[in-house]
Write a structure and sequence with these properties.
The chain is an alpha/beta fold. About 25% of the residues lie in helices and about 15% in strands. It contains 5 helices and 7 strands, in the order E-E-H-E-E-E-H-E-H-E-H-H. The protein has helices at about 35-40, 100-115, 130-145, 175-185, 195-200, and strands spanning about 10, 20-25, 75-80, 90-95, 100, 125-130, 150-160. The protein starts with 7 loop residues before the first strand and ends with a helix.
Length: about 200
């Protein structure tokens, strides 16, 4: 959000997983107005200036076979979440010095990973949790299209569905939140066509 460069963490695969890739899209909520985005750009969720340089990979990213028997020896990537729009924004607000570049971050990271060997993947899994889980849904078809038909490609959204239902006060919290994100960060043109054709953006 502050114009600093995005980043990812990569742990190379080996053995039977040397040509398999797991991309984990980091979660962390959204910013849906100028105030929340200006605050967010002073944190690791909006600026690489505040991100850890190294991360411990755990869970689905672990390199320990007993903890992560399915993916421990794959190429495992954690793409850092720093745009506040589930890797889907593409605009700016000059007055507040905000850069909404989520879809560009996603595509630049994917291009870099392809150049670093992902283009030869025989298996690829796009995953994410929470806001990253929503991003895994939104970017799934695009991810599938990166690879030849012979590559086995799957997408996993962990806690990435947010229901459009009335909250306890009768309001539409999620609908209002997403409307703010879509409008502020110019997300509409970066949603899968099925979303923009059939749903309120």
């Amino acid at each position: 959000l502050d114009g600093t460069l995005p980043g990812y963490h990569l742990h190379r695969g080996h053995g039977s997983g040397a040509n398999s890739w797991l991309i984990q899209l980091e979660g962390g909520g959204w910013c849906n107005n100028i105030r929340t985005c200006v605050y967010r750009k002073t944190t690791r969720r909006g600026s690489s200036n505040y991100m850890e340089k190294q991360l411990q990979f755990t869970g689905i990213l672990s390199d320990k076979a007993q903890e992560n028997p399915d993916f421990f020896n794959w190429n495992r990537v954690k793409l850092r979440y720093c745009d506040g729009a589930s890797f889907s924004g593409d605009g700016q607000n000059q007055a507040a010095q905000l850069q909404f570049r989520g879809v560009r971050i996603w595509r630049a990271a994917i291009d870099d990973l392809k150049a670093n060997g992902m283009r030869y993947a025989n298996q690829a899994l796009l995953s994410g949790c929470s806001a990253g889980g929503l991003a895994a849904i939104l970017r799934c078809d695009e991810f599938r299209n990166l690879f030849p038909g012979s590559t086995k490609v799957k997408c996993l959204s962990d806690a990435g569905l947010f229901l459009d239902t009335a909250d306890v006060s009768g309001g539409r919290t999620i609908r209002n939140l997403y409307n703010g994100v879509v409008e502020l960060q110019s997300v509409k043109n970066n949603l899968p066509r099925i979303c923009t054709n059939h749903l309120d953006p």
